[in-house]
Amino acid sequence: MDLNPLFKMKKRIFYLDVVRALAMTMVILLHSVADYFNRSSAYSISFYFTNTLYTISSIGVILFIFISGAIYLNEDKQISFNKLLRKILKMVIFFVIWSLIYSLIFEVFFPLSEGKSLNVSQIFITFGKGFYHLWYVYLIIVLYLLTPLFRLFTKKKYFKIVSLITIGYIFAISIIFLISRNLTTYNIINTQFFEIYDYFYMDIILFLPALYILGWILSKSEFKKIHYVIYVLGLISLVGMIIGNVYLKNYGVNSTGYIYTKRDDPLLVICSLSLFLLVKKIFENYQKESNFSRLITFYSKHSLGIYALHPMFCLFTYYLLDLGNVNNAFLYVLIAFIVSLSFSTILTYLFSKIKYVREIV
Q1: 268-293: pLDDT as tens digits
Q2: How far apart are CA 92 and CA 357, in angstroms?
Q3: Which of 114, 214, 238, 291 is the most exposed place for a label (fewest CB within 10 A)?
């Protein structure tokens, strides 16, 4: 079957489309498995299964940041300040509309349908802070605002010094945070800082912009002599995160969360950059126009709408099918993932054909 009539292609950087498709799939899987991951008992098969999926899928968010850096910090791409302002305005509108939709559904409609009274303050908190996945919009707006500044030094002539400073900063901060978070698990230091840090998404300012620059660095790097070493380090880091979360769960230590899948975790960064480089290595020179390339491009182009919609279908699946038994986690995660992926993709495609509505997908 030829998909060309449905999936019209434009000139794109194909390996970034592949990375974006992987990232979007991982994010949907992350949100499909998260509830079962958090509720699974220590030493249970359910926990080992959900922990593995949760850890792997945590890579998705970092990949999205790398893609943005590779595109918007590319000195060969002309980006005017007015264009950035239009993109910021679009993301503000995107946030307001989707935050309102999710607030009304999950803070008004669901409580009323269950005979509960409305928590007005929670409605405003959910709207202002955004539903759990909409934090990413705040990040994108911050990155767009920083882009003119970053583009002053993300140039070929400054590549080595920018790379050294950025990579040094990333791993210095992430290692300090990893050690500090570990100390909180044993009550050696107070957890209050990290509770505030995580609640208010402070990594949007302190850490994630550095990953944005790292995305540009990775897009311009070859690593010909050491790319296999990086892949091995990525695999070791993935195993390390899985084992680290098993330790935290099974030994029941106090924790501000599963610290080995935090966005500022050095193992997660290594794992993410190794996957980015692997996809780049495989698909950077991919020129063939095929059903595969058209499908990937279609999925990538509609990723923003899919991102906006997928938690709705994930939670509706939990609600309608009463997916509450963690002992059947494998089946329920599979159902939630398939429903979320398929329905959010279909609905995004349909919305993209409607004037004005297409602006929020």
Answers
A1: 999 999 999 999 999 998 887 889 99
A2: 15
A3: 114
Q: How many CB atoms lie within 10 A of CB 98?
A: 23
Q: Find tokens 């897009």 and name the residue.
A: 219
Q: Look at residue 134 and give its three-state secondary structure.
A: coil
Cβ within 8 Å of residue 95, ≥6 positions away? 130, 134, 137, 138
Amino acid at residue number 123: I
Stretch 188-195: mean pLDDT? 79
Total count of residues recorded for the chain: 361
Token couple for 111: 């409580």
Asked if residue 242 lies in contact with residue 41, where contact means CB atoms within 8 angstroms, the answer is: no
Considering only CA atoms, which of 153, 267, 264, 154 is closest in space to residue 219? Answer: 154
Question: Which pLDDT belongs to residue 232?
Answer: 96
- Residues 45-67: what's their mean pLDDT? 95
**Which of 11-15, 75-79, 183-187, 321-325 bottoms out in mean pLDDT, i.e. has the lowest?**
321-325
d(CA 297, CA 286): 13
Do 57 and 26 contact (CB within 8 A), yes or no?
yes
Is the separation of the CB atoms in 185 and 253 below 8 Å? Answer: yes
Give dist(CA 280, CA 222) in Å, integer. Answer: 9
In the predicted model, what is the mean pLDDT of residues 35-42?
A: 84
> CA quadruple 160, 166, 169, 170: dihedral positive or negative?
negative
Any idea what DSSP says for residue 109? I
CA dist., res. 361 & res. 356, Å (int):
10
- The residue assigned the tokens 């920083």 is 146
Measured distance CA(234)–CA(62) in Å, rounded:
13
What confidence score (pLDDT) does residue 5 get? 41
Average predicted confidence (pLDDT) for the chain: 90
Rg, Å, the chain Cα set? 21
Exposure on the CB side of residue 134, measured as CA atoms within 13 A: 24
- Residue 360: Cβ within 10 Å count: 17
Joined tokens for residue 207: 């850490």
Phi–psi pair at 265, nearest 5 degrees: -80, 130
- Reading the block at residue 60, the tokens are 């998705």
- The pTM score is 0.93
Q: Choose among 25, 104, 54: nearest CA to 262.
A: 54
